[in-house]
Amino acid sequence: MTPPGSYLAPGERILVLAPHTDDGELGCGGTISRLIEKGCEVYYAAFSTAEESVPPEYPPDILQTEVRAGTKALGIDPANLLTYRYRVRHLPDVRQEILEELMRLKEEIKPSTVFLPSSHDLHQDHQTISMEGLRAFKTVTVLGYELPWNNMAFDYRHFVALQERHVQAKVNALACYESQKHRPYVQEEFLRSWARTRGGQIFVDYAEAYDVLHWVMM
User: Fold this and answer.
1) Per-residue pLDDT tens for 31-63?
2) What are the residue ranges of helices labelled H in the chain?
3) Adjacent-strand bridge partners of 18
4) Is 195 part of a structural domain of the chain?
5) Sign of the C-alpha dihedral computed for residues 170, 172, 174 and 176 taken in this order
6) Which of 21, 80, 106, 176 would bridge with 67, disulfide CB 3.0–4.6 Å?
7) CB proximity list for 153: less than 8 A, separation 6 or greater
8) pLDDT for the residue 5
9) Is the pLDDT score of 174 beyond 90?
10) In this predicted model, what pLDDT tens digit does every residue of 183-212 receive, in sequence order?
11) Distance CA 81, CA 158 (A)
């Protein structure tokens, strides 16, 4: 078996945990594109559609539509997208319920690698998914993705080199979030400069970086 994290094993199951819709695309969209290109089977679970945070000019459920379009742009099978409607900024209140759902996903999907927010993330919802995700998936590889505006620190221990097409897929995915276009971190210029910065650290054109929370080789 190819070790988890090598990104070379067709059929390998990968699970991306996003506290809110678009977090997964932001944190590891380029990696998702590369994984799917290599034949991995990627699942995406978004725990809040953040209806209370949607700008007033959009329907409250617009993020349901946008996450379907965004994940499809990365190549994720629509059948592998799971969305939940936990209240934004209230995930800590239901952490046991979330843990039980994560345990169910562990048994159902049986992923070899899980991507979730970094343990250094300051957002309370992100912290909940990071901590409960690590509890649920502590027998497999767990990588924490970077969201710089939420990270006071970040432990750059794992890098995934990307090609232009992977970065473009990430840009295309986030362009699907019309309701979030006002946020500076979804702008193409920022996304590309971020990927170039991480790429420069390993002497390639583009990359995404991860905090290694747990590493398992079978």
Assistant:
1) 999 999 999 999 999 999 998 889 999 999 999
2) 23-37, 62-74, 95-109, 124-136, 164-175, 188-201
3) 46
4) yes
5) negative
6) 21
7) 120
8) 47
9) yes
10) 999 999 999 999 999 999 999 999 999 999
11) 26
115 pairs with which residues across the strands?
A: 16, 143
Domain count along the chain: 1
Amino acid at 106: K
**Tokens (6 digits) for 58:** 């959009």
Give the predicted TM-score (pTM) of the model. Answer: 0.95
Identify the DSSP state of 125.
Answer: H
Q: What is the DSSP letter of 209?
A: E
Tell me the CATH number at 44. 3.40.50.10320
For residue 147, give both structure tokens.
Answer: 């969201």
Q: What is the pLDDT of residue 218?
A: 80
> What is the C-alpha to C-alpha distance for residues 195 and 213, in angstroms, rounded to an integer?
21
Please spell the DSSP secondary structure of 65-94, one letter per residue.
HHHHHHHHHHT--GGGEEE--PPTT-GGGG
User: For residues 129 and 136, is the Cβ–Cβ distance under 8 A?
Assistant: no
At residue 7, the pLDDT reads 56
> For residue 7, what is the DSSP state?
-
In this prediction, residue 2 has a pLDDT band, given cuts at 50, 70 and 90, of very low
Calpha distance 71→94 (Å, rounded) = 26
Range of the domain at 112: 13-214
Structure tokens at 167: 């970065």
Number of neighbouring beta carbons within 10 Å of residue 87: 14
Q: Which residues pair with 190 in a beta bridge?
A: none
Residue found under tokens 């209230």: 90
Specify if 3 maps to a domain.
Answer: no
